[in-house]
Structures are given as structure tokens and as C-alpha cells.
Amino acid sequence: MCFRGMSTTTHHVDFVMAKDTSLSSLTVHWPTPALTAKEKMSKASRDKGKRGERELAKLFTGEGYPAKRFGFAQTRFGGSEGADVVCDSLPWLHIECKRYNKFMGSKLRDALEQSERDRRPNTIASVFHREDDCKWFVTMEAVEFFRIVRGEFE
């Protein structure tokens, strides 16, 4: 039997035959689910992400747009449709937060795809990102930026 994308774990199980009183043994192989991205991430990386989310929420609040981390709901609901930071006065903005030592290329594309995938309907996917010892930046599709400039969101 083949389980694609899954490793197998060997477990040794002891059991007693129904008609015989002798003890027999059986080795069973069953699939172990592949680790999710969150499970592959170290605790230090997760903690850095949480600090980044708190820092970004503080930045939004300091600019006059009260915001908070959405961490509990991300964990509780598996991240589906869960923004990293929630700002009630900007309900049309899906905020994905990333904190990396170096954040370029494929990491940014992956983050944008995640924001697109997780956002609610009629919201703009955005990635707020900051490298160590740098300023915060926001990345979104240019078309969405012009929708904001034109005031299409209230």
C-alpha cells in the first residue's frame, strides 16, 4: 500500500490469538500525516511572528486605526480566512504580517498567495512585512492600490 506525501511509522503491537492462549506479535505500518507549515516552523520563528503581529497592530493603532492581533482565531480556525492583524476601521483590508531576517523573492510571492487564499470576499489582500532593523512595508496588487486611492472602500 502506498501513501503519497506521507511517511510511515512502525509500531509494534502485542495481541492474543482468539483460539490460542499463546502471545503473538504483529508489526503494523500506518501513515503519519505530513507536517503542516506551522508544525515545521520553530518556536522561535512562531514567537518572532507573534511579536511582529503585535508590533504591526501597535503601528496601526498609533496611526489612528486601532488594531489587534487575530492570533486566537488563527489557531482556533486553522488560519482559514484569518488575518494576522484585524483593524475594524479598515474592514476591507486583509492584513498578512511577515517578519523575516531577509524577506525577498519567493517568500514574498508565497505570502501574497497566502493572503489571497485566506482573505474574505470583497477585501484586499495585503502583506505587511519588515526585515530585521528595517521599516515596515506593504505589498499588494497595484490594481488594489488604485482602488484604495480612488476611495472605493469606506
Fold blueprint:
Layout: E1 7-16, E2 23-32, H1 37-40, H2 43-62, E3 68-69, H3 71-76, E4 85-86, E5 93-100, H4 106-118, E6 124-131, E7 137-139, H5 142-149
Parallel strand pairs: 5-6
Antiparallel strand pairs: 1-2, 3-4, 6-7
Task: Give a quick summary of the entry.
With 154 residues, this protein is an alpha+beta fold. The protein has helices at 37-40, 43-62, 71-76, 106-118, 142-149; strands at 7-16, 23-32, 68-69, 85-86, 93-100, 124-131, 137-139.
- Kindly report the spatial arrangement of strands forming the biggest sheet: 5-6-7
- Rough outline: globular
Order of helices and strands: EEHHEHEEHEEH
Helical region count? 5
Briefly note the structural class of the backbone. alpha+beta
The CATH topology comes to Trna Endonuclease, Chain: A, domain 1
**Biggest sheet layout:** 3 strands, mixed
Q: Report the average pLDDT across residues.
A: 77
Using the coordinates above, name the CATH class.
Alpha Beta
Radius of gyration: 23 Å
The appropriate CATH architecture is 3-Layer(aba) Sandwich
Proportion in helices: 25-40%
N-C termini distance: 55 Å
Number of strand segments: 7
Strand proportion, as a percent range, falls in 25-35%
- Overall number of structural domains: 1
Low-confidence runs (pLDDT<50, min 5 residues)?
1-13, 75-80
